[in-house]
Amino acid sequence: MKSFYDRKNELRALSEIEKQSASSACFTVITGRRRIGKTELLKKFLENKKGSYFFTSRVTEAALCRQWQVLLERDIGLKIFGTVETIADLFQQIMLFSQDNHFTLVIDEFQDLDYINKSIFSQIQNIWDSYKGRSKINLIVCGSVYSMMVKIFQDQKEPLFGRASHSIHLKPFTPSVVKEILSDFNPKYKAEDLLCLYMLSGGVAKYIFLLMYAGASTKEKMLKAVCNMASPFLIDGKDILISEIGKDYGVYFSILTCIAGGLTSQSEIDSVIQKNTGAYLQNLQNIFGVIEQIRPLYAKTGSRNARYQISDAYLRFYFRFIYSHQDLVELGNYDMLKEYIQRDYETFTGKTLELYFSEKIQEEKAITSIGSWWDKKSQNEIDIITVNDLKKTCHIYEVKRKKKKIDLSKVQEKADLFMQNLPDYSYTITGLSMEDM
Q1: Could you report the per-residue pLDDT of 287-309, keeping only the tens digit for each?
Q2: Would you call 271 helix, strand, or coil by DSSP?
Q3: pTM of structure
Q4: Which of 263, 286, 387, 424 is a good FRET partner for 41, with 20 to 30 A between their CA atoms?
């Protein structure tokens, strides 16, 4: 059974950067949510290459230096005589060594250096600026706390702003890769199994393999594995977001529960939370990267006809079923939790199916834009619309779990309204169901 899937584009990009670094130092930042597979990607890339992989443990600075010093000697032959007790001194030795030696250095959980030494990023910036002109290092840093990594490298007030020469944001596996993995573990899988896997993982590598290696490759087995005392699916949502948001997460979690439950406009959320949630929504979107604001395709900039959705499939599932039934989790009543999930499963996965097909279409079709549409009264909704501005074509999709429930005549009425936005474009209408997954 394969242990590593896809990531061809990312590996190709990393190889090109490595070639460039042989003559000019490169500094690459890799971001992506926890469990997405950043570490596995980097370890795969390092295979059969001259390089060293550092993990940032939350220990004392001197202890971390000792750990890394051993790895440097073993992996790239950098032997430092004497005791190095600061990361700045160690990094300076690495940069000096890189003037005559080409190698790759990966620092994982880079943001955690801040816990060890509050001035470390300023020190790294100063050393990098001083030595990069003569260096042949391929420096790669990554981190699982998205908000901190964005702040370190994209905030103009931070010392490492503008220092990265390359940036890669690792995304979940595409639908075709999810299908490939499921097929390897269950060659006779059904569409319902694939939809359930996508609902729980959204293509996030760790969640997929947690289920597959547990033998949970059917819908029934997946839900049983999730509703289990030892299931990481019951706690990972909270753990991920507390690492991003911090301990003051109450209002944020309440907002996410509202959105997962179908309250997608700020006015609806405000009425439940009983306060103006605008600033919280902005943070969830722009700082933590947990939600996204969507508007009807071709709506005017700044239009108030907007909705929010949780951008991560697992977190959408977590806040709809796990966090909202936390009392059952704490009581250990996993059978009743499973009953709640099964009761609302079909309704919930209707939207999941739309998200799946949106990703599938983006993977397979030549398009310039994709989105959905609804009128000013939040009626006449179209599930998916794709546009190719070069060919002046538009494709309108109606998505239903069951094919027999698709009524293209009703879609035609909505399409006539939408196409007023694109009077010179030709269009087609297609129905998509679970049979098309």
Answers
A1: 999 999 999 999 887 788 899 99
A2: helix
A3: 0.92
A4: 286
